[in-house]
Design brief:
Elements lengths: L3 H18 L12 H4 L4 H16 L6 H40 L11 H12 L19 H19 L2 H22 L9 H21 L12 H15 L4 H23 L4 H6 L2 H8 L1 H22 L6 H38 L1
Amino acid sequence: MRFTKLDGLRGLFSLMIVFYHYDKEFLPKFYDNFLINHSYVFVDFFFVLSGFVISYNYNSLDNLKKFISFTKKRVIRLYPLHLYSTIVYFIYILFSRLILIRIFPEYFQGLDFTYEKHIEPFFDGVLLTNSTPILGTSSGTNGPSWSISAEMISYLTFGLITFLVSRRVKEFYFLIIIFFSSLLCYNYGNFFVGGEYGFLRGFVGFFLGYFVWKLYNRNTTLNINNNVEFLIPILLVLILFIIDYFNQTEIGLILGILIIPSFFSISIFILLYSNGFLSKILNTKVFQYLGKISFSMYLNHYLLLIVFLKPIYRIIDIEQTGVNQTLIMILAIILVIFYSHFTYSIIEKQFGNYLRGKLL
Protein backbone atom coordinates (compact mmCIF):
# COMPACT_ATOMS: atom_id res chain seq x y z
CA MET A 1 0.00 0.00 0.00
CA ARG A 2 2.96 2.33 0.55
CA PHE A 3 3.82 2.43 -3.15
CA THR A 4 0.29 2.34 -4.59
CA LYS A 5 -0.44 5.84 -3.27
CA LEU A 6 2.54 7.07 -5.31
CA ASP A 7 0.88 5.59 -8.40
CA GLY A 8 -2.26 7.51 -7.51
CA LEU A 9 -0.29 10.73 -7.16
CA ARG A 10 1.34 10.11 -10.52
CA GLY A 11 -2.13 9.76 -12.05
CA LEU A 12 -3.28 13.04 -10.48
CA PHE A 13 -0.20 14.92 -11.69
CA SER A 14 -0.56 13.45 -15.20
CA LEU A 15 -4.06 14.89 -15.30
CA MET A 16 -2.72 18.27 -14.19
CA ILE A 17 -0.25 18.22 -17.09
CA VAL A 18 -3.15 17.59 -19.46
CA PHE A 19 -4.75 20.78 -18.12
CA TYR A 20 -1.44 22.61 -18.51
CA HIS A 21 -1.28 21.77 -22.23
CA TYR A 22 -4.95 22.58 -22.77
CA ASP A 23 -5.12 25.55 -25.13
CA LYS A 24 -5.62 28.63 -22.93
CA GLU A 25 -7.82 30.16 -25.63
CA PHE A 26 -10.42 27.46 -24.99
CA LEU A 27 -9.88 26.92 -21.28
CA PRO A 28 -12.73 28.02 -18.99
CA LYS A 29 -11.64 31.14 -17.13
CA PHE A 30 -11.96 29.44 -13.76
CA TYR A 31 -9.17 27.02 -14.67
CA ASP A 32 -6.78 29.69 -15.92
CA ASN A 33 -4.84 30.14 -12.66
CA PHE A 34 -1.34 29.71 -11.27
CA LEU A 35 -1.98 26.07 -10.31
CA ILE A 36 -2.71 25.11 -13.91
CA ASN A 37 -0.24 27.53 -15.47
CA HIS A 38 2.69 26.00 -13.60
CA SER A 39 1.68 22.34 -13.72
CA TYR A 40 4.76 21.64 -15.85
CA VAL A 41 6.59 21.18 -12.52
CA PHE A 42 4.90 17.81 -12.07
CA VAL A 43 7.26 16.34 -14.65
CA ASP A 44 9.89 16.67 -11.92
CA PHE A 45 7.78 14.45 -9.67
CA PHE A 46 7.91 11.79 -12.40
CA PHE A 47 11.71 11.99 -12.44
CA VAL A 48 12.02 11.70 -8.66
CA LEU A 49 9.54 8.82 -8.54
CA SER A 50 11.39 7.01 -11.34
CA GLY A 51 14.67 7.39 -9.47
CA PHE A 52 13.11 5.96 -6.33
CA VAL A 53 11.44 3.01 -8.07
CA ILE A 54 14.48 2.11 -10.18
CA SER A 55 16.77 2.29 -7.13
CA TYR A 56 14.35 0.10 -5.17
CA ASN A 57 14.27 -2.56 -7.89
CA TYR A 58 17.79 -2.38 -9.33
CA ASN A 59 20.14 -1.32 -6.57
CA SER A 60 22.57 -4.08 -7.53
CA LEU A 61 23.76 -4.57 -11.12
CA ASP A 62 26.96 -6.42 -10.33
CA ASN A 63 27.50 -8.19 -13.64
CA LEU A 64 27.08 -7.54 -17.35
CA LYS A 65 24.10 -9.87 -17.68
CA LYS A 66 22.12 -7.93 -15.07
CA PHE A 67 23.03 -4.61 -16.70
CA ILE A 68 21.92 -5.80 -20.15
CA SER A 69 18.68 -7.19 -18.71
CA PHE A 70 18.06 -3.88 -16.90
CA THR A 71 18.60 -1.91 -20.12
CA LYS A 72 16.30 -4.16 -22.13
CA LYS A 73 13.53 -3.85 -19.53
CA ARG A 74 13.78 -0.06 -19.52
CA VAL A 75 13.64 0.12 -23.32
CA ILE A 76 10.68 -2.27 -23.43
CA ARG A 77 8.87 -0.19 -20.82
CA LEU A 78 9.32 3.22 -22.45
CA TYR A 79 10.10 2.93 -26.12
CA PRO A 80 7.09 1.16 -27.74
CA LEU A 81 4.52 3.75 -26.63
CA HIS A 82 6.98 6.58 -27.21
CA LEU A 83 7.62 5.41 -30.79
CA TYR A 84 3.90 4.83 -31.42
CA SER A 85 2.88 8.29 -30.21
CA THR A 86 5.70 9.92 -32.22
CA ILE A 87 4.65 8.16 -35.44
CA VAL A 88 0.95 8.93 -34.93
CA TYR A 89 1.73 12.60 -34.31
CA PHE A 90 3.93 12.71 -37.43
CA ILE A 91 1.12 11.18 -39.51
CA TYR A 92 -1.20 13.91 -38.23
CA ILE A 93 1.34 16.56 -39.23
CA LEU A 94 1.57 15.13 -42.74
CA PHE A 95 -2.20 14.90 -43.01
CA SER A 96 -2.83 18.46 -41.77
CA ARG A 97 -0.02 20.09 -43.78
CA LEU A 98 -0.61 18.24 -47.03
CA ILE A 99 -4.37 17.53 -47.08
CA LEU A 100 -6.36 19.49 -44.47
CA ILE A 101 -4.72 22.75 -45.50
CA ARG A 102 -6.28 22.30 -48.96
CA ILE A 103 -9.75 21.55 -47.55
CA PHE A 104 -9.76 24.19 -44.78
CA PRO A 105 -7.17 26.78 -45.88
CA GLU A 106 -8.58 29.44 -43.56
CA TYR A 107 -7.94 27.27 -40.49
CA PHE A 108 -4.57 25.77 -41.44
CA GLN A 109 -3.04 28.76 -43.14
CA GLY A 110 0.72 29.14 -42.62
CA LEU A 111 1.25 25.55 -41.50
CA ASP A 112 4.05 24.73 -43.92
CA PHE A 113 5.96 21.46 -43.88
CA THR A 114 9.74 21.83 -43.49
CA TYR A 115 12.74 19.72 -42.56
CA GLU A 116 13.65 21.91 -39.57
CA LYS A 117 10.13 22.00 -38.12
CA HIS A 118 9.04 18.43 -38.77
CA ILE A 119 11.61 15.96 -40.16
CA GLU A 120 14.39 16.81 -37.70
CA PRO A 121 12.09 16.69 -34.63
CA PHE A 122 10.74 13.33 -35.82
CA PHE A 123 14.19 11.72 -35.90
CA ASP A 124 15.12 13.54 -32.71
CA GLY A 125 12.19 11.82 -31.00
CA VAL A 126 12.66 8.41 -32.59
CA LEU A 127 16.31 8.33 -31.53
CA LEU A 128 15.44 9.53 -27.99
CA THR A 129 17.83 12.45 -28.33
CA ASN A 130 15.15 15.11 -27.92
CA SER A 131 16.30 16.10 -24.42
CA THR A 132 19.83 16.73 -25.72
CA PRO A 133 21.45 19.12 -28.21
CA ILE A 134 22.73 16.22 -30.36
CA LEU A 135 20.37 16.77 -33.31
CA GLY A 136 19.22 20.28 -32.50
CA THR A 137 17.06 22.17 -30.04
CA SER A 138 13.83 20.30 -30.68
CA SER A 139 11.61 18.66 -28.06
CA GLY A 140 10.66 16.10 -30.68
CA THR A 141 7.53 15.65 -32.74
CA ASN A 142 5.45 14.93 -29.64
CA GLY A 143 6.45 17.80 -27.33
CA PRO A 144 6.08 16.11 -23.90
CA SER A 145 8.21 13.16 -25.05
CA TRP A 146 11.43 15.08 -24.28
CA SER A 147 11.02 13.82 -20.72
CA ILE A 148 11.02 10.20 -21.95
CA SER A 149 14.41 10.89 -23.53
CA ALA A 150 15.61 12.46 -20.27
CA GLU A 151 14.32 9.48 -18.30
CA MET A 152 16.01 6.96 -20.59
CA ILE A 153 19.32 8.83 -20.31
CA SER A 154 18.92 8.80 -16.53
CA TYR A 155 18.24 5.05 -16.61
CA LEU A 156 21.37 4.36 -18.66
CA THR A 157 23.53 6.65 -16.50
CA PHE A 158 22.23 5.01 -13.32
CA GLY A 159 22.77 1.55 -14.79
CA LEU A 160 26.31 2.24 -15.98
CA ILE A 161 27.42 3.79 -12.69
CA THR A 162 25.79 1.02 -10.65
CA PHE A 163 27.43 -1.61 -12.85
CA LEU A 164 30.91 -0.06 -13.12
CA VAL A 165 31.40 1.67 -9.76
CA SER A 166 31.53 0.18 -6.29
CA ARG A 167 28.61 0.76 -3.96
CA ARG A 168 30.73 2.85 -1.62
CA VAL A 169 31.52 5.54 -4.18
CA LYS A 170 28.54 5.53 -6.55
CA GLU A 171 26.60 7.87 -4.27
CA PHE A 172 29.43 10.36 -4.67
CA TYR A 173 28.94 10.21 -8.45
CA PHE A 174 25.20 10.72 -8.04
CA LEU A 175 25.78 13.79 -5.87
CA ILE A 176 28.22 15.19 -8.43
CA ILE A 177 25.62 14.69 -11.18
CA ILE A 178 22.94 16.49 -9.14
CA PHE A 179 25.26 19.39 -8.33
CA PHE A 180 26.60 19.99 -11.82
CA SER A 181 23.22 19.42 -13.51
CA SER A 182 21.68 22.05 -11.22
CA LEU A 183 24.58 24.42 -11.89
CA LEU A 184 24.29 23.99 -15.66
CA CYS A 185 20.53 24.56 -15.50
CA TYR A 186 21.23 27.80 -13.64
CA ASN A 187 23.81 28.88 -16.22
CA TYR A 188 21.42 27.99 -19.01
CA GLY A 189 18.87 30.31 -17.39
CA ASN A 190 15.90 28.02 -16.92
CA PHE A 191 15.53 24.91 -14.76
CA PHE A 192 12.13 24.04 -16.21
CA VAL A 193 13.57 23.38 -19.63
CA GLY A 194 12.67 20.67 -22.08
CA GLY A 195 14.33 19.98 -25.39
CA GLU A 196 18.06 20.35 -25.74
CA TYR A 197 19.03 20.40 -22.03
CA GLY A 198 16.07 18.59 -20.53
CA PHE A 199 18.27 15.62 -19.59
CA LEU A 200 19.92 17.82 -16.93
CA ARG A 201 16.56 18.46 -15.32
CA GLY A 202 15.92 14.72 -15.46
CA PHE A 203 19.24 13.98 -13.74
CA VAL A 204 18.43 16.23 -10.78
CA GLY A 205 15.07 14.63 -10.01
CA PHE A 206 16.07 11.06 -10.83
CA PHE A 207 19.15 10.95 -8.62
CA LEU A 208 17.36 12.73 -5.80
CA GLY A 209 14.93 9.83 -6.07
CA TYR A 210 17.85 7.49 -5.43
CA PHE A 211 18.57 9.22 -2.11
CA VAL A 212 14.89 8.99 -1.14
CA TRP A 213 15.22 5.25 -1.65
CA LYS A 214 18.47 5.22 0.32
CA LEU A 215 16.76 6.79 3.32
CA TYR A 216 13.77 4.49 2.95
CA ASN A 217 15.99 1.42 2.72
CA ARG A 218 17.66 2.26 6.01
CA ASN A 219 14.38 2.28 7.93
CA THR A 220 11.25 0.77 6.39
CA THR A 221 9.30 0.78 9.66
CA LEU A 222 9.38 4.51 10.45
CA ASN A 223 5.99 6.12 11.13
CA ILE A 224 5.17 9.74 10.36
CA ASN A 225 2.11 11.42 11.87
CA ASN A 226 -0.71 11.16 9.34
CA ASN A 227 -1.52 14.85 9.71
CA VAL A 228 1.85 15.73 8.16
CA GLU A 229 0.33 14.70 4.81
CA PHE A 230 -1.74 17.89 4.83
CA LEU A 231 1.50 19.83 4.42
CA ILE A 232 1.97 18.36 0.94
CA PRO A 233 -0.97 20.10 -0.84
CA ILE A 234 -0.57 23.24 1.30
CA LEU A 235 3.12 23.63 0.49
CA LEU A 236 2.53 22.72 -3.16
CA VAL A 237 0.00 25.53 -3.58
CA LEU A 238 2.34 27.94 -1.79
CA ILE A 239 5.33 26.93 -3.91
CA LEU A 240 3.41 27.29 -7.17
CA PHE A 241 2.18 30.71 -6.05
CA ILE A 242 5.75 31.80 -5.30
CA ILE A 243 6.99 30.50 -8.65
CA ASP A 244 4.19 32.39 -10.35
CA TYR A 245 5.05 35.58 -8.44
CA PHE A 246 8.75 35.37 -9.35
CA ASN A 247 8.13 33.95 -12.81
CA GLN A 248 11.00 34.55 -15.31
CA THR A 249 13.25 36.18 -12.71
CA GLU A 250 16.57 35.00 -11.29
CA ILE A 251 14.89 34.43 -7.92
CA GLY A 252 12.30 32.24 -9.62
CA LEU A 253 15.06 30.27 -11.35
CA ILE A 254 16.94 29.65 -8.10
CA LEU A 255 13.74 28.70 -6.28
CA GLY A 256 12.85 26.26 -9.05
CA ILE A 257 16.23 24.53 -8.89
CA LEU A 258 16.34 24.37 -5.10
CA ILE A 259 12.72 23.77 -4.18
CA ILE A 260 10.78 21.74 -6.75
CA PRO A 261 12.79 18.47 -6.95
CA SER A 262 13.47 18.64 -3.19
CA PHE A 263 9.79 19.20 -2.41
CA PHE A 264 8.73 16.17 -4.45
CA SER A 265 11.47 14.09 -2.80
CA ILE A 266 10.23 15.05 0.66
CA SER A 267 6.61 14.45 -0.38
CA ILE A 268 7.39 10.91 -1.52
CA PHE A 269 9.29 10.27 1.72
CA ILE A 270 6.32 11.45 3.81
CA LEU A 271 3.85 9.31 1.89
CA LEU A 272 6.04 6.24 2.32
CA TYR A 273 5.70 6.48 6.11
CA SER A 274 2.18 7.82 6.63
CA ASN A 275 -1.34 6.66 5.97
CA GLY A 276 -3.49 9.74 6.34
CA PHE A 277 -6.35 11.32 4.44
CA LEU A 278 -4.27 12.07 1.34
CA SER A 279 -3.03 8.48 1.19
CA LYS A 280 -6.58 7.17 1.38
CA ILE A 281 -7.67 9.45 -1.48
CA LEU A 282 -4.73 8.42 -3.65
CA ASN A 283 -5.49 4.75 -3.02
CA THR A 284 -9.07 5.05 -4.30
CA LYS A 285 -9.97 3.26 -7.53
CA VAL A 286 -10.18 6.50 -9.53
CA PHE A 287 -6.64 7.64 -8.79
CA GLN A 288 -5.25 4.12 -9.03
CA TYR A 289 -6.77 3.81 -12.49
CA LEU A 290 -5.34 7.19 -13.53
CA GLY A 291 -1.98 6.06 -12.22
CA LYS A 292 -2.18 2.87 -14.26
CA ILE A 293 -2.76 4.72 -17.53
CA SER A 294 -0.71 7.79 -16.61
CA PHE A 295 2.15 7.04 -19.02
CA SER A 296 -0.31 6.72 -21.90
CA MET A 297 -2.13 9.88 -20.81
CA TYR A 298 1.13 11.77 -20.73
CA LEU A 299 2.22 10.75 -24.25
CA ASN A 300 -1.23 10.87 -25.87
CA HIS A 301 -2.82 14.05 -24.58
CA TYR A 302 -0.85 16.66 -26.52
CA LEU A 303 -1.98 15.44 -29.92
CA LEU A 304 -5.51 14.55 -28.83
CA LEU A 305 -6.13 18.05 -27.51
CA ILE A 306 -5.05 19.54 -30.84
CA VAL A 307 -7.10 17.11 -32.92
CA PHE A 308 -10.19 17.57 -30.74
CA LEU A 309 -10.19 21.27 -29.84
CA LYS A 310 -9.34 22.92 -33.16
CA PRO A 311 -12.14 21.27 -35.18
CA ILE A 312 -14.66 21.85 -32.38
CA TYR A 313 -14.02 25.58 -32.05
CA ARG A 314 -12.61 26.64 -35.41
CA ILE A 315 -14.37 24.43 -37.94
CA ILE A 316 -17.69 23.64 -36.24
CA ASP A 317 -17.50 27.17 -34.78
CA ILE A 318 -19.07 26.48 -31.37
CA GLU A 319 -19.65 29.60 -29.32
CA GLN A 320 -17.11 30.01 -26.51
CA THR A 321 -19.40 30.44 -23.54
CA GLY A 322 -18.38 29.32 -20.07
CA VAL A 323 -20.79 26.37 -20.17
CA ASN A 324 -19.65 25.23 -23.62
CA GLN A 325 -15.99 25.51 -22.69
CA THR A 326 -16.55 23.47 -19.53
CA LEU A 327 -18.51 20.73 -21.32
CA ILE A 328 -15.98 20.49 -24.14
CA MET A 329 -13.13 20.36 -21.64
CA ILE A 330 -14.83 17.44 -19.89
CA LEU A 331 -15.29 15.67 -23.24
CA ALA A 332 -11.63 16.28 -24.08
CA ILE A 333 -10.50 14.74 -20.79
CA ILE A 334 -12.78 11.73 -21.34
CA LEU A 335 -11.31 11.32 -24.83
CA VAL A 336 -7.76 11.37 -23.44
CA ILE A 337 -8.64 8.79 -20.77
CA PHE A 338 -10.51 6.51 -23.18
CA TYR A 339 -7.78 6.57 -25.80
CA SER A 340 -5.09 6.12 -23.15
CA HIS A 341 -6.90 3.06 -21.81
CA PHE A 342 -6.65 1.60 -25.32
CA THR A 343 -2.93 2.31 -25.73
CA TYR A 344 -2.20 1.07 -22.20
CA SER A 345 -3.96 -2.23 -22.88
CA ILE A 346 -2.66 -2.84 -26.41
CA ILE A 347 0.79 -1.26 -26.49
CA GLU A 348 2.01 -1.00 -22.92
CA LYS A 349 0.68 -4.38 -21.74
CA GLN A 350 0.12 -6.72 -24.67
CA PHE A 351 2.92 -5.55 -26.93
CA GLY A 352 5.18 -5.06 -23.91
CA ASN A 353 4.55 -8.66 -22.82
CA TYR A 354 5.30 -9.83 -26.36
CA LEU A 355 8.64 -8.01 -26.38
CA ARG A 356 9.54 -9.31 -22.92
CA GLY A 357 8.87 -12.85 -24.13
CA LYS A 358 11.12 -12.33 -27.15
CA LEU A 359 13.95 -10.26 -25.66
CA LEU A 360 14.26 -11.32 -22.02
